[in-house]
Amino acid sequence: MPEPLEGITVVEMTIAVQGPAAALYLRDMGADVIKVEPPLGDPSRYGRGRNNETPDGTMGPQFVAVNRGKRSVCVDLSTELGREALHKLLATADVFLTNYRRPALSKMSLDYESLHDRYPNLIYAAVNGFGPAGEDADKAMLDGAAVARGGLVSATGYPDRVPSVPGAIIGDTAGAMHLALGVVTALFARARHGGGQSVLTSALGTQLWLQQWELTHVAMTGTDLDRDGNHHPNIRGPYGVYKTKDGGAILIAQTMEQDNWDAFCIFADIPEMAFDPRLQLPGQRLGEGLTDADSDEFRAKLEAAFLQKTAREWDDFLRTQPEIIWERVRSWSEVLEDPQNLVNEYVIRVDVPGVGSVRTVGNLVHLSETPGSAKGDPPELGEANAELLGLAGMSAEALEEIVTRADAVREEAMALLLDMQEK
Fold first, then answer.
1. How high is the pLDDT of residue 313?
2. Are residues 319 and 298 part of one domain?
3. Domain check: are 380 and 302 in the same one?
4. To the nearest 5 percent, what fractions of the chain are helix, strand and coil?
5. Where are the alpha helices (DSSP H) in 286-384?
6. Are 24 and 169 members of one domain?
C-alpha cells in the first residue's frame, strides 16, 4: 500500500524533542527524513538521565525516542562546503524543518525569506518556545519554561504547596504535534494552490491549546481556578485519583448510569451516597450543582473507601461496570507492557547499539487505506553522508573533506573535555 507522505522529502535541522518529534510523525507517515547534524551531533544523542546503566556511548533515550527511522547527515555548517552540502539537500526537498533559534538561522542565511527566495516551493517549518512575534520570540526555552508561562504549572499540584511541574515534557511534545499538523496542512495547501510557505508554532502556543476549556472558563468568569491536588481544578465531586490499600491508585472520572453508581456505592460500602439527592444524575456526579463543601464531603468518603481494598480488587470490580469511566493509575514500566498499547502498536521495538531491542512509542495514527508505519532504528551520526550527499552531487573529494572536518571538530572537543577534567 502507498503511504500518505510517500515521495515527500524532509530536511530536518533540529535538537532535543520539539523539532525531532514533529519530523518523526512525518517519517512514520512515509516521508524521507534527513536529519542534518553538526559534527558533535544532536546533544540529545548523549543525554543519559536518571537510573541509566546502559554502556557508555549508548544513544540517549531521548534521541532514540524521537529519531527512529531517520537518516543522519553530519556536516559543519560553519564551513562553505558544509553549507553547500545542505543546499544540495534542500534543492530537492519538500520541507525544511527546524527548531534552531531565529538569530542562528539568520546568521547562516537559513531564515525563511532567504530560503523562500531560493526555493519557492519549499515548506519552511519552524517551532520555538514563545511564538514568532513579540519581545520574547527569540528567547531560549526548555519545556518547563513553556508550561510555567502557559499556566499549566500553576494548576498542577496541591493548593498549600509550591506548584508542580508535569511529569512529562508536554510543552515540547505538544509543540511537535502542532508543527507536524502545520506541515501537513501546508503540503495540502501547496498541492491545492501551489507554492511553499512558512509554518510557525511554539511550545507556549500549544500549552494554551491544551488548556482551551480552562482558559476560556477563567476568561468568562473573571476568576482564576485553584489547583486541587488529586482533582481537576474545574471539576467538583468524585472526579479524581484515590489511593488504594496496597499503595496503588485509581482514577474515577464519571458514572454514567444509576445502576452502576448503585453498584459502586455498595462495593465501596458507602450506600448512603447511592441515595444522596445531590448525586442522582450523571451531571451531578461530575460536579454540576455541587458546592466546595459537598465535594470535600464526598471525596473524604471516597478516600476512606478506596483505602479498604487493593488496586487489583478495585480493578476487578470496575471492569464489571461498563458505564463507569475509570482507570488504574499505571507506572511507565506498566505502560510499556500494557496489552492495549501493544495490540495497537502504540509501543514498538527498536534496536539500539549497545543495548539491543528496546521498547519505545510507535506510530499512533492508523489510516485504513494508506497507513503509515514505524520506520526503523535511530541513526548513527553521519551514517548517510556518503549515500545522500553522493546522490545530491557532492564529489568524493568533497565528501572526504566533510568527514575529515567533522572528525577534527569532535577530536578538538574531546581534547578540551579531557583537559577540563584533568584540571
1. 98
2. yes
3. no
4. 45, 15, 40
5. 292-306, 311-318, 332-337, 339-343
6. yes
Query: Cβ distance 227 to 156 under 8 Å?
Result: yes
342 and 320 inside one domain: no
**Same domain for 146 and 14:** yes
Spatial distance between the Cα atoms of 398 and 307, rounded to a whole number of angstroms: 69
CA distance 46 to 420: 18
Distance (Å, whole) CA 123 – CA 129: 20
Cell triple for 114: 532567504
- pLDDT, one tens digit per residue, over 389-400 is 999 999 999 999
Grid coordinates representing 146 are 513553556
Of 207, 196, 83, the closest CA to residue 153 belongs to: 207
Kindly state the average pLDDT of the residues 154-165.
Answer: 97
> Which residues form the domain of 260?
249-328
Taking the C-alpha atoms of residue 199 and residue 181, their distance in angstroms, rounded to an integer, is: 10
How many C-alpha atoms does 391 have within 13 Å on its Cβ side?
A: 10
What pLDDT, on the 0 to 100 scale, is given for residue 364? 95
Overall size of the chain counted in residues: 423
Split into its structural domains, the chain has a count of 2
Give SS3 for 321. coil
Each residue's pLDDT tens digit, 286-300: 999 999 999 999 999
In this structure, the answer to whether residues 312 and 352 fall within a common structural domain is: no
At residue 228, the 3 state secondary structure works out as: strand
Alpha helices by DSSP H, 29-79: 61-67
pLDDT tens readout for residues 341-381: 999 999 999 999 999 999 999 999 999 999 999 999 999 99
Q: Confirm if 68 and 375 have CB atoms less than 8 A apart.
A: yes
- Would residue 231 count as lying in a domain? no
Determine the Cα–Cα distance for residues 404 and 415; give it in Å rounded to an integer.
16
**Which amino acid, 198?**
S
Name the nearest CA neighbour of 256 among 280, 237, 276, 277: 280
pTM of this structure = 0.96
What amino acid is encoded at 34 in this protein? I
Cβ–Cβ < 8 Å for 209, 177: no
